[in-house]
Amino acid sequence: MFRKLTTAAFALMLSAVQALSQGLIRDAEIEYALRQVAQPILQQAGLPGSVKIYIINDDKMNAFVGNARAIFIHSGLLLRMESADQLQAVLAHEAAHIANGHLTRRPAAARQAATAAKLGLILSVAAAAAGGSRAGMGVAAGTASAAQRTLFAHTRAEEASADQSSLRYMAAAGTDPKAAREVLELFRGQELLTIGRQDPYAQTHPLTRDRIRAVEGFAAAVTPRSVDRRAVDYWYARATGKLSAFLRAPRWTLRRVGRDMDEISVLRRAIAEHRQADLRGALSAIDSLIAARPGDAYYHELRGQFLLESGQAAPAAASYGRAAQIAPREPLIQAGLGRAMMAAGQTAKALQVLERARANDPYDPAMLRDLATAHARQGNTGLASVATAERYAVLGRLDDAAIHAKRAEGLLPSGSSGWLRAQDILATAPRR
């Protein structure tokens, strides 16, 4: 069943995302894990369930808010975190910018950034554009970093306000406020560097000695609430372990995990062996994780990915199917299942699954590519054109999106769901 995206909502999405210079890493397990880490902080900020956490595939250290419902953190910063407390410190600070209303002063900046560069949507993935698959990860076209700095820069007053709020959130959530001081230490000295050598965080979040002293003083005076943090620490380790295993060289990962048999080490080993085309070793490792956690949808999903990328479509579909049974509302798992079904020749079933995935996450280019292919195989060129237009729009190729949307407009009944989706794109695309 289609979930209609109004023209206004589509345009809002475009304006909110045109300041990104890199693509996103989309992975169901990592996104779920980050939600578990963020939830205690967001609860204290009065933002539970309304904010999503996304990872930008960029080795630089940065984090920022894209709009009132999205926090972005660079993979480079995430992999430099040494604890769940430090990650929560970053998330608390960005959540404070949202909760304190700092985004309300951004419309003019957003327009300026959009004028500087009009490429890329927030949920774009380069692997989809290239037709490849790497844990749903990749880089897509986007705007220049100067546009990002224009849109997401904060004043020193905003930084001080966000620091105070974020430290309160941390203490109330049971997070050690000293972690905020540790994060700021990562950026010490950045403002003394030339712009070209600074990490983006230093350009968008002014760092001063007075700011560090204020954080130190609060952290020293406050005792965090005592809470059970085992779940937060577990999901932090799982998110960073998986991310590291996919982004770093397999040999580096295998050297680091050695013969360790704890859960996260086995997860990292499975991914490294898969990336080295050792399917037997990868399946042995992931099957041991599934045996320990048979109800874990993300381990079944990862097994499906290993099989699909090794050319075994039918067993991949079975693994994805099990994952989808456990987590029926996870659109990225549904998209993987649809992709596996397509590879296995089950086009009609795949189409149903992909439509459900689109209804819950209409900004996944890989899913939209598969959806267009499924419609084309079923002989529905109009809906295939709509899905293709949406994919190009998500990737920032608005001229191409308009071409396919115009084609769909002529093929589909006026007023139908697909026709209305084409109208959304035509209303948003630049006019010649």
TrEMBL record:
The family assignment reads: Belongs to the peptidase M48 family.
The alphabetized list of GO BP terms reads: proteolysis involved in protein catabolic process
The segment(s) forming the Peptidase M48 domain are 34-217
Q: A GO CC term? A: membrane
Q: Which UniProt keywords apply?
A: Hydrolase, Metal-binding, Metalloprotease, Protease, Signal, Zinc
Q: Which residues constitute the signal peptide according to the record? A: 1-21
Protein name, as recorded? Putative Zn-dependent protease, contains TPR repeats
Nucleus among keywords: no
* Cofactor binding description: Binds 1 zinc ion per subunit.
| Taxonomic classification | Bacteria, Pseudomonadati, Pseudomonadota, Alphaproteobacteria, Rhodobacterales
Record's Pfam families? Answer: Peptidase_M48, TPR_19
What sections of the protein cross the membrane? none
- Cofactors that this protein relies on: Zn(2+)
From the UniProt record, which GO molecular function terms apply?
Answer: metal ion binding; metalloendopeptidase activity
Matches recorded under Gene3D superfamilies: Metalloproteases ('zincins'), catalytic domain, Tetratricopeptide repeat domain
